[in-house]
Amino acid sequence: MNLNVGVIRGDGIGPEIVAEAVKVLNKIGEVYGHTYTFKELLLGGASIDVHGIPLTEETIEEAKKCDAVLMGSIGGDPQTSPWYKLEPSKRPEAGLLKIRKELNLFANLRPAVLYDELRGACPLKEEITEGGFDMMIMRELTGGLYFGDRKTVEEDGVLTAYDSLTYNENEIRRIAKRAFDIAMKRRGKVTSVDKANVLDSSRLWRKVVEEVAEDYPEAALKHMLVDNCAMQLVKDPKQFDVILTENMFGDILSDEASMVTGSIGMLASASLNETKFGLYEPSGGSAPDIAGKGIANPIAAILSAAMMLRFSFDLDKEADAIEAAVNKVLKDGYRTIDIMSEGKTQVNTMQIGDLICERIA
Ligand code: IPM
Ligand code: MG
Fold first, then answer.
1. Span 117-139, mean pLDDT?
2. Which position among 49, 116, 215, 227 bears the catalytic label?
């Protein structure tokens, strides 16, 4: 089949890791007989440099015409990059939030898996990681604090900032349904994370999630407060199957979950709407400190490409082949610097991409 894919290389390490993901996709094309139409799209700092804004209407329209979009990362170093001298709504991150909203990408799937081979890179004690762990964070992506009204005003001579956290029941219901659907294909456990002891939005969250759970009698639902969840992720990560949570909590918990797998450079993600369309990106950031050095770990981007094949194109066999090749490369002892440990072979971004391609046959 021909796959119509938008490509956002983005900023920092984005272009380097996307190049490897595209390389792997091309290899899949050769082996399984698929072709691609890649459409280059600008987002974030790369778009600011050309158009003065992080996301143009034209890019939104072009993205909508694609079946899926593969993305690297956006943003620079806030201390040094000129992009951060612009007003907040013109900075790179604003472009990312806008594309998520415009494309209605409300369901963000962030799988956090501890690879057996990478147990050494995991900062947790061995008795905790024994047997590995495999969780899916389902983060609501188009509501909550990220998209509520905000303002900074002077009140009685005192500067005061407001950010509002709003969720309606429909927004909660659709992400909860997605989480249960996904849980049913896994181990059937949903841990819904909120702050219902304090927030109204969380109390509504809990109520709606419970209603949705009634349609999934075979699933096991558990509620957990977000502070407790942060603790449980390092105390006993094995207990989690699907973690369902709102936007801000999901942002924080997914970084934490990625770190306990050894490196944020390993974590893929998919942002989906009600259709087959998805935006696929590593969970990690643009890492401007290592950009251009050829040392970034492209595995998160490569695994994001695998998620794209699986979710947007139903190409499960091809997605499996990529995941197996990544596993094999790790088994064969190859590591980028972020996951390097004694006795392994350190390779750079392009080399690990090549090694993964060689293992797809
Ligand atoms: C993420 C990132 C973004 C977010 C930033 C870059 C706006 O941290 O995708 O997790 O907070 O959603
Ligand atoms: Mg984040």
1. 91
2. 227
Residue with tokens 């990529």: 322
Q: Is residue 116 part of a domain?
A: no
Active site residue 195: yes
Which residues have a Cβ under 8 Å from the Cβ of 268 and sit 6 or more positions away?
110, 111, 280, 282, 283, 300, 301, 303, 304, 306, 307
Q: What is the pTM of this model?
A: 0.95
DSSP bridge partners of 337: none
Closest CA to 14 of 297, 255, 325: 297
Q: Which domain holds residue 134?
A: 123-260
User: How does residue 120 score in pLDDT terms, banded at 50, 70 and 90?
Assistant: confident
Kindly state whether residues 228 and 300 are assigned to the same domain.
Answer: no
Q: Distance (Å, rounded) from C-alpha 195 to C-alpha 225?
A: 5
List the catalytic residue out of 67, 251, 280, 338.
251
Q: Which atom of ligand 1 is nearest to the CA of 92?
A: 6
Ligand nearest to the CA of 269: 1
Contact 41 CB / ligand 1 (< 6 Å): no
pLDDT over 90 for what percent of the chain?
A: 91
Is 96's C-beta closer than 6 angstroms to any atom of ligand 1? Answer: yes
Same domain? 94 vs 145: no
pLDDT in the model for residue 119: 85
- Residues 208 and 180: their CA atoms lie apart, in Å, by 13
Q: How many residues does the chain have?
A: 361
Which pLDDT belongs to residue 261? Answer: 87
| Domain end position, chosen among 199, 227, 260 | 260
Cβ burial 77-93 (10 Å sphere, 16+ → b, else e): eeeebebbebeeeebbb
**Residue 310 belongs to domain with CATH number:** 3.40.718.10
